[in-house]
Specification:
Two copies of one chain form a homodimer.
Chain A: H1 15-35, H2 41-48, H3 52-58, H4 62-87, H5 90-107, H6 111-115, H7 123-146, H8 156-166, H9 172-187
Helix pairs in contact in A: 1-2, 1-4, 4-5, 4-7, 5-7, 5-9
Chain A binds a DNA duplex (30 and 30 nucleotides) through residues 11-17, 20, 40-42, 45, 50-54, 56-57, 62.
DNA sequence: ACAGATAGCGGAACGGTGTTCCGGTTAGCC
DNA sequence: GGCTAACCGGAACACCGTTCCGCTATCTGT
């Protein structure tokens, strides 16, 4: 009531704060890649050149940091869907993208576990998953159906979640790819 | 060289030692069931009525304790394969057992993660998995093929691992079951 | 350009957990 | 009954997540 429309920045962030935030995301990305998402908080703060207090101020929950790191990586995968759809026939594009997605998840250890941990703290990440990745996949699915392919009725989100689980194992990507292909075959049965 | 053939017990275990060992496995089973396999070591020792030192003497690695607890649970699942094979036609028995196995893995949170963590400490558990579960499944697969079903060539162990991964998520058993059925459909494509 | 207000920083401190180690205890054997 | 070694318990140490607060650096108004 008392506040105006407040359509714009209710607050102007201090310059050093934003700088530290960027450094933290960058450091977290590197540490996650080499030690997994369970890496010690301190090692991330140290790498970013800040104290743990600063890290906690910007990311109260570990999941917030994980979300920040993975969100941008998801975007690249979403973009690939459009590119593949433009360059290949619908059915082929579908398979190719799922394989591309498989590769993506396989290289991001811990992403799958985080997404489906059931921990409510990961809601934002899961939300982004539903908002961005699932629709991209859904479009490919619909395009394939429109082109005459017989595709079993599945919930896109559920299917992608299953693929992610399949990639969760560290037993090389070979097995994961074979099982994903089996899942794709089931889609056409 | 100096030791004889040592064909039999090189040592006789003290009675209290064996008693404590049993108590520990029993306590671990209960604690794992209610708090997951990552439950504090101390809580297990306490429940068993022994000190942490004793626990570590019997099970130097957490994985040793997990293996001890899950091994016997796997046996029950293996037995179910024979029962189902005796009571149903091959193809049906195959599906039923996979669903039974799905249920088993789903109730044992952490089993799947442990099996496919890649951690060499879980080799013994994985070995038992290969030695007992995989052959049981393989038999059902062969029986179905012998009965004329067209079943894609898959590595039994790999397939069971995939099913376990699918059940890893905490998002209820519904989703897992649907995806497992999709995998089964892929088996027949 | 300067000073006051305050967003933001760093790291010490606390509680909980895994793991090690060793003095004391007890079962098994003579 | 007494000896010996296997065995036990828990104190001690290292590491990690998380909180808290005194100090610093940035922004803003003049």
């Amino acid at each position: 009531m008392s506040t105006p429309p407040d359509t714009r920045a209710p607050r102007t962030r201090r310059a050093d704060a934003r700088q530290n935030l960027d450094a933290l995301v960058e450091a977290a990305k590197a540490v996650f890649a080499e030690s997994g998402v369970d890496a010690p908080i301190r090692s991330i703060a140290e790498r970013a050149g800040v104290g743990v207090g600063t890290l906690y101020r910007h990311f109260p929950q570990r999941s917030d940091l994980i979300s920040a790191v993975f969100r941008r990586e998801m975007d690249a995968c979403v973009d690939a869907a459009d590119e593949l759809a433009a360059a290949h026939p619908p059915g082929e594009a579908l398979d190719l993208w799922v394989l591309r997605y498989t590769e993506f998840v396989a290289t991001k250890r811990g992403l799958s576990a985080a997404l489906h941990s059931g921990d409510p703290a990961y809601e934002p990440l899961a939300g982004y998953f539903s908002t961005r990745l699932a629709p991209a996949f859904s479009n490919l699915l619909e395009a394939a159906r429109a082109a005459g392919e017989r595709i079993a009725p599945v919930d896109p989100e559920e299917f992608l979640g299953a693929v992610a689980d399949l990639c969760h194992s560290r037993a090389g990507t070979d097995r994961a790819e074979r099982m994903v292909r089996l899942l794709l075959a089931g889609l056409r049965a």
